[in-house]
Amino acid sequence: MRATETPLEAKLYVIPGSHPAMAARRMLELKGIPYKRVDLMPVISRGALKALRFPSNTVPSLVIEGRKLTGSRDIARELDRLRPEPPLFPSDPDERVAVEEAERWGESVLQPAVRRIFWNALQRDRAALASYAEGARLVVPIGLAVRTAAPIVAAEKRMNGADDEAVRADLGALPGWLQRIDDWIAEGVLGAEPPNAADLQIAASLRLAMTLDDLRPAIESRPAGQMTLRAIPDFPGHAPPVLPPAWIEPLAQSEPARSTR
Ligand SMILES: N[C@@H](CCC(=O)N[C@@H](CS)C(=O)NCC(=O)O)C(=O)O
Fold this sequence. Notes:
- Helices cover 55% and strands 7% of the residues.
- It contains 12 helices and 4 strands, in the order E-H-E-H-E-E-H-H-H-H-H-H-H-H-H-H.
- A 4-stranded mixed β-sheet has the order 2-1-3-4, covered by helices on one side.
- The longest helix is centred in the middle third of the chain and has 32 residues, at 93-124.
- The structure holds glutathione (GSH).
- Residues 15, 18-20, 42-43, 45-46, 58-60, 71-72, 107, 111, 115, 156 line the site of glutathione.
């Protein structure tokens, strides 16, 4: 915070391992806004946020200066309004349009796809769940939360449409999406320092994807993976390979080291 800036008070509601919630955390950190984090259990979070009268029942939800906001994109805009430096959006109108388009795509296409892949993978190996709650303060002990998580994981898989067919299609589309992100980096829409709102939106999803050993090799060595690690260096959680090898094949073929391009 600069000497002339008024202190801001913020409380951020998250679910451990939530990628859009991580995007919001990084926005607050980059702007130097201290915040209290409230960790919620998935599914149960919905009732809690509704009872707290947020505009919607998903995380990230934020209370700042007495205002209640839900959604990573709304939060980015409000934080830029309250604390303009460093900006999350470019001041040049054309550049802003490009960043907003990448941000919108990141939220509406990549974010739900990574969520589907995540819940499908975690249903195959629930033991990995505990690693995503590292450092979280839940109302029940983490061990107990994980041991009793089967209905929650099943509900997430159902609510997010994370069935095998959808996830296989997501994995088939992922190489093209990674190329699209690499292209945005080459064009300068993404990848500058400090990260903009689209960097954080997209990096949060790729960072969660990189906690899955099935996906990390295809992402980490590309410009998209490097941008991700710069924008979001730390993300709790790790899942060993669990997805059927045939599903990963399109991704393995797209790994730069094996590419013929
Ligand atoms: N697109 C919204 C979506 C947020 C969203 O769906 N968040 C998930 C966690 S990643 C959530 O709150 N899910 C409720 C639940 O898991 O019960 C955003 O970017 O803020």
